[in-house]
Amino acid sequence: MSNFFNQPIQLGSLKLKNRVFLAPLAGVSDIPFRRIAQEMGAGLTYVEMLSATAISYKNKKTFDMMARHSSEGILGVQVTGPDAIQVAHAVSVLDKQGFDTIDINMGCPVRKVVNAGCGSAILKEPERISQTVKLAREATTKPLSAKFRLGYTRELINVEDTTNRVLTELVDMFTIHGRTRSESYSTPCDLNGIQLSMQAAAKNPSKAIKVGNGDIFDFQFAEKMQKETGCDAVMISRGALGNPWIFKEILEGKRYQPTFAEWYDVLLRHITYQEEHYGKTKISAILARKHLLWYTKGFPQSKALRDVLNKVEDLEQAKELLKEYAKKIAPHYIRYGDGDYEMHEGYDPKFEMDRQLDRGVGDEEMNAVLSNKKD
Ligand SMILES: Cc1cc2nc3c(=O)[nH]c(=O)nc-3n(C[C@H](O)[C@H](O)[C@H](O)COP(=O)(O)O)c2cc1C
Question: I want to staple 76 with a disulfide (CB 3.0 to 4.6 A). Which of 46, 81, 115, 170 is the partner?
Answer without folding.
Answer: 46
